[in-house]
Amino acid sequence: MITKAELKKRQEQTYGFLQKAGLVITPAEKERIEIADFGLNEFEKTGLGILVYVNTERCCAKELAMWPRQTCPEHIHPTVGAVLGKEETFRCRWGKVYLYVEGEKAAKPACRPPAGRESTYTVWHEIELNPGDQYTIMPNTWHWFQAGDQGTVVSEFSTRSTDDKDRFTDRTIGRATKIVEDFA
């Protein structure tokens, strides 16, 4: 949970990251920046700044901004009924991001999960993305990712995003960020 003041601060910081990536963001888009803290109340360790451009029945496009060494926790976009899970392509725009997916474990992973949550990270096949690099994650694939030392901006192109359907290995995670009144 975050306060309204922290929300505004994090939106401004996200906007700054997007500018570093050379992206042109309109004032209306800036107001729509989402801050995901996954209900853990440790945003700079586990979280994302998200700007969704479009999310229709068939496609989605967003920007993901991450602070230095910030992690998006391990999750899967599952098939639900007849609806295939989300397929997503990540394209690094600025900084560096390490993506971990199912497959052969990296001999010396470049990243570590946030302290105290190590047991909730189970996939260790490492893909390093630098500006211009991209990788596609197929539906029903466990994955997580972490920014490099300066942070990162990643464009995500995918089939319809249904974040409420995502499943996390860490059962304490809640996808929707709770905003509370500022405390005096």
Question: How would you describe this protein?
Answer:
The chain has 184 residues and is mainly β. It has two helices and eleven strands; from the N terminus they run βααββββββββββ. It has helices at 4-20, 27-31, and strands at 2-3, 34-36, 48-55, 60-66, 71-76, 88-101, 125-129, 134-137, 143-158, 167-168, 179-180. Strands 2, 3, 4, 5, 6, 7, 8, 9 and 10 form a nine-stranded antiparallel sheet that branches. The radius of gyration is 16 Å and the shape is globular. The mean pLDDT is 95.
The number of E-state strands comes to 11
Q: What is the H-and-E element order?
A: EHHEEEEEEEEEE
Low-confidence stretches: none
What share of the residues does DSSP label as strand, in percent? 35-45%
Terminal residue distance: 16 Å
How many helical elements? 2
Q: What oligomerization state is this entry in?
A: single chain
Which range best describes the helical content: under 10%, 10-25%, 25-40%, 40-55%, 55-70% or over 70%?
10-25%
**How would you describe the shape?**
globular
Could you say which structural class the secondary elements and strand pairing correspond to? Answer: mainly beta
Largest sheet: 9 strands, antiparallel
Radius of gyration: 16 Å
Summarize model confidence as the mean pLDDT: 95
